[in-house]
Structure formats: C-alpha cells, structure tokens
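Notebook B, p. 112. Complex prediction, attempt 2.
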Amino acid sequence: MQKNILKTIQKQKPIVHCITNSVTINDCANILLAAGASPIMADEAEEMEDMGKIASALVLNIGTLSRRTAASMHIAGKAANARGIPVVLDPVGVGATTLRLETAESLLESVRFAAIRGNISEIKTLDDRVRSSHGVDAAAEDALGAGEEALALARRVAKRLNTVIAISGAVDILAAPSGAAYAVHNGDALMARVTGTGCMSTAILAACAAVAENPLAAALTAACAMGVAGEQAKRRLTELDGNASYRSYLIDAVFHLTDEALDQEARYELFE
Amino acid sequence: MQKNILKTIQKQKPIVHCITNSVTINDCANILLAAGASPIMADEAEEMEDMGKIASALVLNIGTLSRRTAASMHIAGKAANARGIPVVLDPVGVGATTLRLETAESLLESVRFAAIRGNISEIKTLDDRVRSSHGVDAAAEDALGAGEEALALARRVAKRLNTVIAISGAVDILAAPSGAAYAVHNGDALMARVTGTGCMSTAILAACAAVAENPLAAALTAACAMGVAGEQAKRRLTELDGNASYRSYLIDAVFHLTDEALDQEARYELFE
Amino acid sequence: MQKNILKTIQKQKPIVHCITNSVTINDCANILLAAGASPIMADEAEEMEDMGKIASALVLNIGTLSRRTAASMHIAGKAANARGIPVVLDPVGVGATTLRLETAESLLESVRFAAIRGNISEIKTLDDRVRSSHGVDAAAEDALGAGEEALALARRVAKRLNTVIAISGAVDILAAPSGAAYAVHNGDALMARVTGTGCMSTAILAACAAVAENPLAAALTAACAMGVAGEQAKRRLTELDGNASYRSYLIDAVFHLTDEALDQEARYELFE
C-alpha cells in the first residue's frame, strides 16, 4: 500500500467536488473533512465549469438522480477530464431504474473514470447492461456470489471499461484494467445498516485519487481506510449504541486515522 | 397489538420508497435501516414507475415540496395503488402554503392512502381545507385541544378520507375509517426538539404497513415504537446531551427494539 | 451584550425561514430547534409569499445554489423586506462560481439585508466583486490576514452595503454601517472541520435578529453563542471523538446555552 496517502491529503487538503445525492451529502462532506480534504458540493449545470477549475477530484454519485443533475454530471465530468483530475463514479441503484442505467451508460461513454465504486449488484448491472430487479442495497443472491466470482467480475469490468473497479461487500474486491487486483478484508457488517457508507467510501476514494500515484493505490487505501474505520467504530459501540451512533463513530475514526495505523490494521491480498 | 411486525420487517426487509424532504431525508433512511427495512429515496418523475415495481411501501412527504416532486408524487402514488402496496402521506406544513395544500388535496383525490400521519394542525387543515397561519410545528392552541377533540377529529377525517389517520402529539391518536381508534401514551416532549421525528414516524409507519395485517395495526406499532424509542432515548441522556445526541439515541433505540420490548413498554388504549 | 436574546428566542419561538443548501439543511434546522426557534425550510418560488407571511426572519444561503432556488431567494427577500422582518445572507463559496457571485450581487441590489455572515474570503469577494480562486473554505492567505485587516474590511463592506457584516474566523469580526464593531474571541479550530458551522451560525444570527434590538446585537450574540458552544463541545471530546461527535456536541451545547452562561463565557471587544 502506498505509504503516505492520508498524510498527503491532510497536507494538500484537495478540493473534492461532489455531485451527489441529497440523502448522504452531509456525511460525504463531513467524512471528507475528517480525512483532511476540502469538500465542495454543487450540482447546478452552469457552476460546473467554475468548480472544475478549482477541484482536485470529482465524484459523480447517481443517488437521488434528476435530469438536472445528470446534465451537470456530464459537464463536470468532461471539464475534469480536460483538466486531468480524477473522476470517480458511484452508480447508486443503477439497476433500479432506466434513468439511472441510461445516465450511467452515457456517462461511461462521455467521461473517462479513474474508478467506479459500487456494491456487487451495481457492478453486475454495469457488466450486464440489464436492469436488475433490486434497489440500492446489494441483492442477497449477489452478495452470496462474492469471492472468485466478484474477482472475475471486477477484472472483466475494469478491463472493458478501462477503469479501476471497486466492489464493496463483506470482502471488498478492487481491480485495475491491467488485471492487478486486491481483496480487502477489513470492514463490518454494521456498515450496511448506515445509509451512505458506500457514498462515503466513494468520496474518500476520490480524495485519495487526488493525491495517490494511481487509482488502484487510491482504491486500496480508501477501501482499507473505510474498513479499518468501520472496525474501530464497531469496537467503540456500547450496549445501547445502534446504527446512528455507529455512523458518528465511523466518521470520528476516519478523523483520527493515520497512514501508520492504517498500515498496521489493513488486511488485504494482492492478486497479480 | 399485532405481535410480530418488527420481526417481520427485519426478516422481509421491505423496500420503502420515500419521496421526502431534503431536511430529514438522511434520518428517514437511517431509521428505516435501524428497523431492518430497506430505504430507497428517489424523486425524479421518470424513475417513479421503476421504483414502484420494486417497492413494498411508499411515503409521500410534502416538506420542501417543489412542483417537480409534487408531479413525481402523483405518478408514484398511482403506480403504488396499481400494485396494491400501501401509500402513506405526511402532510408537512400543509397549512403553511397554497402549494402544499393544493398538492395534498390533489393527491387525496388521485391516490388511495393507507394512512396519513401528521400533527394536529396538519390534520385539522386537511379537515378544514382552510389554510392555517402556522408553520410546520403544531400551533400551540391546537396542541392544547388534544384529547377528546383529537379523537373526534381523527375519526371524522379517517371516515371522510377513507384512510387511517395518525395524529402525533403528547398523546398520539390513531383512527380507522371504521371508527376503531387508539390513544398512544408513549413518547417524550423532547421529540419535538429534533427535526424530522414526524417524518421518521411516517417512514416507520410505511415499513410497518408493508408487512402488517392492516394499516391501523401498522399505525399502532409505529406510534408505539417511536414513542417507546423516544422514552428509551430520554433515559439515556446525560447532563450535556441535547437534541443532537437525542436524535442519535432515538434511532439507536429503534435499532435495538424488539416486538417483545415493544409489547412490554407500549401504553395505549383502544376506543371501539 | 443585550442580556435576554436567548431567553426571548425560547419564549417567542420565532419562525426562521431558511432557503439553504442541501448539505447542512438538517443541522441548521436542529440548531434552530436547539436554540428554541422554529425552523421552516422551503425553497419553491410559489411558496415564498406564503412563508413570508408567517416567518419572523429569513436566511438566504447560497450553498448548492440553483437557478430555481436563486429565483426563490429574490421573491422571499422582497416579501421579507415588505414585512420588515430581518433577512440574513450567507454567501457560501461566493468567489467560487459566476452563478454564486451574480446571484449574491443581484440579491444585494434587490433585497435589504440586516446582516451578512461569511468567512473572510467570502466577504472579500463581496468587497472586490472579483471572483477568487478558492472554494467554500477560507483561503489560507485570507485567514492569515485577519485582525486589523479584517476589521477594516468589515467596516468598509458594512458601510458600503449598509448592513451588518459578520466575518467568521479564528477571531470573529462584526461591524455595523455606523462603524461600531466587535471582535469575538470565542470558538475553536475544530469548528472548521465540521461542514455547516458557518451555515448554523447564520441560522442562529437570523433567530437572534428576529428578537434583538438591532442586527449588530444579534450578530454579537450569535457569534458568542456559536463560539461558546464550540468551546463547550471541545471540552466534552473524549479521545476517540472526532468531527462527527463534535458536531452533535456543538448542537447539544446550544440546546443548553443560557443568556447567563453566555454572558459569563463570552470574550469580545468593542471598537467604536
């Protein structure tokens, strides 16, 4: 794992521009601040060129998508490509509606992504180009198929779309177009009981991509950081704490996370 | 009280589609996850048919209403009716503006609701069809009029609109079109100092309605669950805790709530 | 400092109408409830006249601005002026995009503001009428220029725009068109690591302005209240707490704050 990504974020305070959903927008901003980055949330079309000039990374998250924000995503994505800053896609619930699938597909055609992070159902949808019948959570049958199948899926989609693919789940699977891949074993099942842990992971991935050597290194640090924070937050739970306190503890853990602690607690395998 | 609603939610994980306000959308998602349901927040018109195919219940909440979301509510409501899944209305601040009142009225004409949950001012507005002069909180004079008057109001509106009416307040009043009614004595005054406790109650009511025998049973479980959670959260407060910590404790309490605990702590009367 | 502002808010429960960004809208509502005010969040153009009839203060916050909400701000601002209730502007990231700068400028032409609260970069942008190159956080070089320069800036802009100017920073600087000014030394650096502490300050300023003798008194109480709350929240932090817990503690502190405690803990200077 690249040794200094968290420290570099804290030092450079990269501006991460997020076009994201209204459900978890506050958590995404706070977890970026926790990591030392500087979030900007803006989604009006005519602001996109201006935001593109000051941002160091861009997140396109299609939760609570609208025609208005879909149009903004295209403008922002192209502006980011023109400047050469990394763009990360979070295809929230892409299998749930035609609007989301078509938006994701047209973004994939017009924008070059450094990475795409989603659950296995979302990444499968991008692979199949077929609308699934599930919502924003991973389908149970998809989650069971993790492991070998997820690795093959991530590699296939990474190669086909020429971008890093990060599949979040009980085990996170990350793959680069080259075929290099990681499995990250950090994390906790409770993360699925807090809305937006996926969105937050994507935001952190973008902050990492703003400073990392390459997108796969960014995805690895982000997946490990979120997973380690999820484990630390779990250990902090008292008897009466539930998913709301867990959400705060998760962000708090990112606030205190260092490269050194991450290096000690990260558990991952490299597949070459 | 129906004995197994919370357990059934945890088992079936019903997808609850919410078209809701931007103020409390995150809390609504997290309290649904706390209860074991699967929230989907989406409000763009062209997604509504697709969301309707996968949802098990629908929430229409008119806080931060816009023309765009009002149109989506009509489409989603009709799609939900066509599939026979329960639709719950939260007429947030319906007396405050013409847009909200007219939207509520046109929704009542075109959509069949399983239940409507609001504070007494909001339900009175639906009864009077006259714009009141207050905001999103219950008017002081309305709150004082609870008790006999609220029971009569709930029964009258339930019968006229042919839907379950849930009036939240110091005592919650629930009434079915048949005249069957409950008073729920759980809850805490501090709940009114957290934005969105009403919205969260409505979301929980929808999750309950997805699995309950009938909407009145769902409303009873939801009112008792929120009230008991509010009491448990109150007991957890330390000297420095205020409404922000209380908000987290409230969601945490729902996370841990079981049908057995609910049965023990619920305090309600049946009026037949 | 005016002695009874917090108590008066708790007693009168002024309705504070906020047209604000989707990132921190929930925190703004909860901190207003913490202070005893009654928040209404609404941003659809056709609701603005109605909301104007019931509100006691208005907040215009240009974070996550859109053409739709910019139009609503003009209507709401004029309606508030017509009724004589105070209007407070928060020029979030005004230097970042042309849309924000042009919206702020046109609002300044058509709406009379009781106060404008922003960081030093934002207030400088209003002074310079030149787009800066930074995002929503204060530029590092601007933050270093606090002190004498900030005082002169605040006085100059206050006079030119004929409104109270509140510059948030390590030291808050407040100035009235008359030249009367304050420096407030309360607060904590951690506040900059929570998204929306500025937005929350603006919301509290508006609640204070609804009941205070004049806008400068409101700005002083608001700046001291937020600063004292920030210090109290800091003292409450345990080893594992980060910015997420700090956010809750901050709102909790406002919940418990009294005029007496504020009077004891506030540290400010008057410049006449």
